[in-house]
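**Paired protein data**
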Amino acid sequence: LEMVEQILASDPAEGQRVAALGVLEHIDHADAFELAKQYLTTGSPKVAQAAVAAVAAQGTPEADRILAELLGGDDPEQHTMAIVYLSERRTDEGAAALGAVVRDDRRPLNTRLAAAQALGRTATVAAVEALTASLTVDSGEVLAAVTDAIEDTATALAGGPGTAAARRAAERLLSMDDPAKVAGLSILARAPEPADVDIALRHMGADDPDVARAAIQAAVAVASELGRDEAISLLTAALEAMPLEAAALGVTGALEQLGAGADLAAQQGFLTDFHIMGPFPNEGGAGFGEAYPPEEIVDLGATVTQGGVQLGWEPMEVESASGIADLRPLVDPSENVVVYAYTEFDMPEATDAVLKLGSDDGIVAWLNGEKVLAVDAARPVRVDQDVAEVRLESGSNSLLLKITQGGGDFGFVARLVDDDGEPVL
């Protein structure tokens, strides 16, 4: 410190002055702070920038006040530096100063946005409170930045000592328009409580699909805080709200962990009890048009010889709540092959129905021996990819599926519903 004082007192060249001030960044001392302050508004811009850095490195709370004062000056470069250093210091005073900048509509837009983003990088209670207080801004662009920043910092706080502040921010966001609701639900998903069930249920049916998805992800988190029956009830509602996206959103996995996968699939009209036979060849996709023995007759007790290997019908139960059967673990080899799946079911009376299928890759379907659908495709399996209107007979009915495979994932899904989408079985 004494050496720096001597150098600066000798009226050195700019480079030496900048270097001397740089040394002060490593000296946390009241005299170092007072010395650096003298160069904030005197000398060249480079010297002033070095002085700002030296002030910001000091542990005294007075440094926050000085940095906040620089935000009120006319130097854009000092504005930027003050914003960065205030966020790095992570003090309550710094967060309050940055929040004031965000809310000041006299400030340049870029300055306000930078202050909001800086607060978003500061995972402190003071930061999330400063951002929450800034949700009143009129500028849509600034409001969007504030919302994103709240999500970042509150999500980081959730689950720790700052959970209460994070949840208060989430509640405020949930009272606003849809983009803010997404952020609020994302925060709740990080710090779920049993009382959040109603919040998740209320937002699952939102018109905005992003809000609905966020609500379902929150529901999965909340379910982990509930008893088994309550969790299954909540997750079932999530499954019904977005059946096509339930797997990606974690709903089906959570249900399966609770041991409710197969039962819930059946409740949605998915067929879950099959026998499968295979693999048969599908080199170059030729298997789609090749009539292998199961297309001639289905005898669950019979075997066929294919390529020197005896194949029989093996029972398979679909355990996924999504209704999707994964065939890769069940057949070997599982690339460039064909597999058949067969099931029977009883109907109390004849009725019209809708057969909904999905497959990876292609699929052919025979209902009671009549071909009702054929799709030669290379695609991932999705629920309800293909639809066929069918007539179910009174008594026993049979469904034979032929699923073709090139490479990668391999599976199928099938369900029977009425015209209103309600299960018929």
Notes: The chain has a mean pLDDT of 93. The first strand starts at residue 273 and ends at 281. DSSP finds 17 helices and twelve strands in the chain.
